[in-house]
Write a structure and sequence with these properties.
By secondary structure, the chain is an all-alpha fold. It is built from 34 helices and 6 strands.
């Protein structure tokens, strides 16, 4: 019961207002004075029932809540809506506050004005609320609380949490929630909620605890209907293992097969039809499942449904060879695969075969969903070929008592067989283009056995971090400076890209070559040029970096600078003596790279610096040909102007040329 008292007169109202002000300000000293002078700490406002403890919880002030509880505040005070402080703490997901209130004798069986207990306030799908849920259940909160509107708390949590935080549903199950909990208005059960969300683990857990797979809601829909809506084949398979009826018809004459057809899952359609769902039933709109699938654009599902419709009603009786497709046999097949682990443990330590008597007793002990006579029939079928014993693997696969199309193994993805090569024709494997890497034996290493020179020691700032922490006293400056820090090595080109000058200075002081190459033959100067680090280029040039080194494609730093379009870097390299017409493996010059990448400023500078516009690449294209191919009008104009300004070669007439040659030969 609520232990609060509503203010009766104006004086109490003023006292309560003052108390709430002090709580809001966190003024424990004056709160204590008011309590000592006879102030009732459990007074609540008449308009909303707000009390001091409610306000402290809303402010998330754990220290103040503890203080109020120690001074007589009741954790069972209810506001006008019937909410207690622990309900507010649970609603906000503050597990520490909730546990503090529970430990101070908070009544977890109290309900608000709508009949909702504390677990309703833990129903938000977050990890923090799951902690509150666990705490409340550990202190005997009611896991089967039903509100005045008929909402079961477990059903509500499954409805909210399955999409965002499923573990809350398992917490409720472990806490003693009814596996058949349902909403009294809609009739939707927790199993239906789990099937609707496609949670195989939760469906299995509910069924293992006694959930009814054939329960129906107000629309006569079962868990199989909801699983079929989402096309959740594995959920339907688990429901079948627990004897779920597949042919339930809803109020609108919808079978699970109609919903599976709308979802387009061909496996669901086939499984439902094989397990007893009639593919020839029409809904209220007069539509068959195959028509629904076809109208929805699910061609594969429509094809499967047309096939099962033709076969419906055929082959339902045991054949002369003993193979069956009766519903009880199919249910046993599904059940045995669902409980395979338990069956193997009961059969013993990995036996291949067991006696018929052991087989029957084990299945009866594990409550197989078949009659004893039917078990004898299954054992007898195995006895014919095994000599009084049952092969366990054959039983699980349904080899001796289930027709091939009905076995679960047929739903597994098929392994494609490799096509045999035709005689006389050999497959020619295409060899990928190899990447030229610097061999390990050519990679320069330090004589002391440390990493290769391309890996340099990272500069470490030696600071006394403890000196900035109030919980630690600062260390002595000299002792801190003398401490040895563990060396950390990084790639020198990483330092170039990040402009880590301290680490580079340290490396060069320790003898690292400035032109050290990484596995792709890149030097630091090449990386700086391709990254556009102009200041880094200046720094490396000042350290003596070579401007004519080549990488695996025979690119020089000038190629990289021209390709990236940094004209300042290009100017620095040319000024430092870079060869302006150096060719790569494909006979591409830096000018050609600038043309291909559409960098007019670089093209203009290189032309003015004397780059040869008549040079040809591997495809016998000159600079103008390349410019036309890449179609940048600015670049085309620059190259064309340069070529037009060059002196043209004088053509010698053919006749004169011949006479000249003859005169030379006479001489």
């Amino acid at each position: 019961m609520s232990s609060s008292s509503v203010t009766q007169d104006h004086l109490q109202m003023l006292q309560l207002c003052r108390l709430l002000q002090l709580v809001y300000a966190g003024d424990k000293e004056n709160i204590e004075k008011m309590v000592k002078h006879g102030m009732d700490i459990n007074l609540t406002r008449p308009e909303d029932g707000m009390g001091a403890l409610h306000l402290a919880v809303s402010l998330l002030n754990q220290e103040l809540v503890h203080f109020l509880l120690s001074h007589g505040a009741s954790p069972n005070v209810q506001d006008r809506r019937g909410r207690t402080p622990v309900m507010l703490a649970a609603q906000m997901g503050i597990d520490k506050l909730a546990i503090l209130l529970i430990q101070n004798q908070a009544d977890l069986l109290l309900q608000d004005a709508e009949g909702k207990g504390v677990l309703f306030y833990c129903s938000y799908a977050t990890k923090a609320h799951s902690h509150c849920l666990q705490a409340a259940l550990s202190f005997q909160a009611d896991p089967n609380n039903v509100s005045t509107e008929g909402t079961h708390v477990f059903q509500l949590i499954c409805e909210k949490a399955l999409e965002y935080y499923p573990p809350m549903c398992f917490i409720m199950l472990d806490g003693g929630a009814d596996p058949n909990a349902s909403n009294e208005k809609t009739g939707i059960t927790v199993l239906m909620e789990a099937a609707k969300a496609g949670s195989v683990e939760l469906v299995r857990a509910i069924l293992q605890r006694g959930g009814n797979p054939n329960a129906r809601d107000q629309k006569q829909l079962s868990a199989v209907h909801y699983a079929a809506m989402g096309g959740f084949f594995e959920v339907i398979q688990v429901l079948s293992a627990y004897s779920a009826c597949m042919d339930i018809v809803s109020l609108e004459d919808y079978t699970p097969l109609h919903y599976a057809a709308a979802s387009g899952n061909a496996n669901c359609c086939r499984f439902l039809a094989e397990r007893g769902c009639n593919p020839k039933l029409k809904n209220q709109e007069g539509l068959l499942p195959d028509k629904i699938a076809k109208a929805s654009g699910h061609k594969v599902a429509a094809k499967v449904l047309q096939k099962v419709k033709k076969l419906h009603g055929k082959g339902k009786k045991p054949s002369k060879t003993g193979l069956m497709c009766n519903l009880w046999a199919l249910t046993l097949h599904d059940w045995s695969n669902e409980h395979q682990t338990e069956l193997c443990q009961a059969f013993g330590d990995d036996p291949d075969t067991i006696t018929a008597e052991t087989f029957i007793s084990v299945l009866e002990g594990l409550k197989a969903p078949v009659e004893t006579e039917q078990l004898h029939l299954i054992a007898k079928r195995h006895d014919k070929e095994e000599g009084g014993s049952v092969n366990i693997e054959d039983f699980f696969n349904g080899v001796k008592y289930i027709k091939i199309p009905f076995r679960l193994a047929t739903y597994l993805p098929k392994i494609k067989k490799e096509k045999k090569a035709k005689k006389g024709k050999k497959k020619t494997e295409k060899c990928p283009l190899p990447i030229c890497l610097l061999p390990q034996d050519r990679m320069a290493r330090r004589p002391d056995g440390n990493p290769p020179y391309v890996m340099i020691e990272k500069y470490c700032y030696c600071l006394d971090s403890d000196g900035f922490d109030s919980d630690h006293t600062p260390g002595h400056l000299i002792s801190k400076a003398n401490e040895k820090h563990e060396n950390e090595y990084v790639n020198i080109n990483y330092c170039v890209r990040n402009e880590d000058l301290e680490s580079l200075d340290l490396a060069f002081r320790k003898g690292v070559p400035v032109d050290v190459q990484d596995e792709f033959y890149k030097t630091p100067l090449m990386v700086a040029c391709s990254s556009g680090k102009c200041e880094m280029v200046k720094y490396l040039l000042s350290k003596g970096a070579s401007v004519n080194m080549r990488d695996q494609f025979f690119w020089t730093p000038l190629h990289h600078a021209a390709s990236s379009g940094h004209v300042e870097t290009v100017e620095l390299l040319v000024a430092a003596g870079a060869k302006i017409d150096e060719q790569s493996l494909s006979k591409v010059t830096p000018l050609m790279r600038a043309i291909e990448c559409s960098h007019p400023s670089c093209v203009d500078f290189l032309i003015k610096a004397g780059a040869n516009v008549n040079a040809k690449n591997k495809n016998e294209q000159n600079c103008l040909d390349i410019a036309i191919d890449f179609a940048d009008s600015r670049v085309i104009d620059l190259v064309k102007d340069k070529m037009d300004s060059l002196p043209k070669l004088q053509e010698v007439p053919a006749g004169k040329k011949g006479k000249a040659q003859k005169s030379k030969t006479k001489k």
